[in-house]
Amino acid sequence: MKVLSGIQPSGKLHIGNYFGMMQEMISRMESSELYVFIVDLHALTSVHDRDRLATGTLEAAADFLALGLDPDKCIFWVQSDVPEVCELTWVLSTLAPMGLIERCHSYKDKVAKGIMPSHGLFSYPVLMAADILLYQADRVPVGKDQKQHLEVARDLAQKFNNEFGETFTVPEPAISETTAIVPGLDGQKMSKSYGNTIPIFMEGKELKKRVMAIETDATPVEDPKDPANCNLFKLMKLFATPARMEEIHGLYVNGGAAYGYLKLELLELINDKFADARKKKAEFLADPAELRAILAKGGQKAREKAVVTLDLVRDRVGLKY
Ligand code: AQP
């Protein structure tokens, strides 16, 4: 089974990215034909700063490798190193009904958050469909925020197959219910562009400040609280053992949950979980030439796959004459 998913180097990767997608991808290394990539073309829709994008791409690569992705057990590359994806995007955009793309809420959400409403941002889902269809992916592990974009990819695959003959695999989303939407400090979806994240590799005082900034209500310690409506509780659940979560749940419903202490406990759990990865990341970043070599090798492997699909597409639509 071909499993594919990408991540934008649009800022420091955060625990929403980790639990929504990275962890799942890393766990599939042994069992799937795995495609993992850094979507720098997508990040251009929100990052217009040469150094930030270039550094962000190398950092995102180091993040994935430090967290345990083995480039010999998957194809790991940078999106723009396979230019075929742009040609497929164009072909797909000639098939994409305006209404389908207009319905995508991520565009409206991002514009509402101050990102420039460009044509690229609007057609983000078409580029994403091209990413998925180019490699004939069967399954795409994503957070719930990307579900609608996955539906666009499925619609475009079906539309192409109906008009031009069976060409693309119709991909299935893989969304884990427990980590579908990781909340940010303010309770909205944790998102790089919303400035409400807990970055995976943040440390020390900076990390403590973020964790202590998780928004909670003003219910006194001894009063009962509703765990289902508390983003601190939801974040704890990602890190604490089920037994500890049962105790914390008891404190919420019976009274006695002290937010300040729970935040300090969460801080410790985050530090423990990512301690090894932090050391490894520093080692990867110390050798950017090696990082670039890993990505170049992955780019070559990805391109070999991409040209096969694109050649078929060109033939099917009449671009081969
Ligand atoms: N809060 C989240 N909860 C669960 N999953 C999440 N993902 C992102 N945020 C959460 C998943 O992470 C993968 C990579 O996401 P992305 O960086 O490519 O794009 P995104 O979804 O737009 O993530 P951000 O952080 O919100 O980025 P910006 O702010 O740059 O747009 C995806 O599978 C996503 O579902």
TrEMBL record:
Main location group: cytoplasm
Keyword field: Aminoacyl-tRNA synthetase, ATP-binding, Cytoplasm, Ligase, Nucleotide-binding, Protein biosynthesis
Enzyme nomenclature, EC number: 6.1.1.2
Annotated residues for binding of ATP: 8-10, 16-17, 143-145, 182, 189-193
Transmembrane residue ranges: none
Residue span of motif 'KMSKS' region: 189-193
MF (Gene Ontology): ATP binding; tryptophan-tRNA ligase activity
Residue ranges of the motif 'HIGH' region: 9-17
Binding-site list for L-tryptophan: 131
Signal peptide boundaries: none
A Pfam family this chain is assigned to: tRNA-synt_1b
PROSITE patterns linked to this entry: AA_TRNA_LIGASE_I (PS00178)
One of the GO BP terms on file: tryptophanyl-tRNA aminoacylation
Enzyme class, broadest EC rank: ligase
Catalytic reaction(s) noted: tRNA(Trp) + L-tryptophan + ATP = L-tryptophyl-tRNA(Trp) + AMP + diphosphate + H(+)
Oligomer and partners: Homodimer.
Role according to the record: Catalyzes the attachment of tryptophan to tRNA(Trp).
Protein name: Tryptophan--tRNA ligase
Organismal lineage: Bacteria, Pseudomonadati, Thermodesulfobacteriota, Desulfobulbia, Desulfobulbales
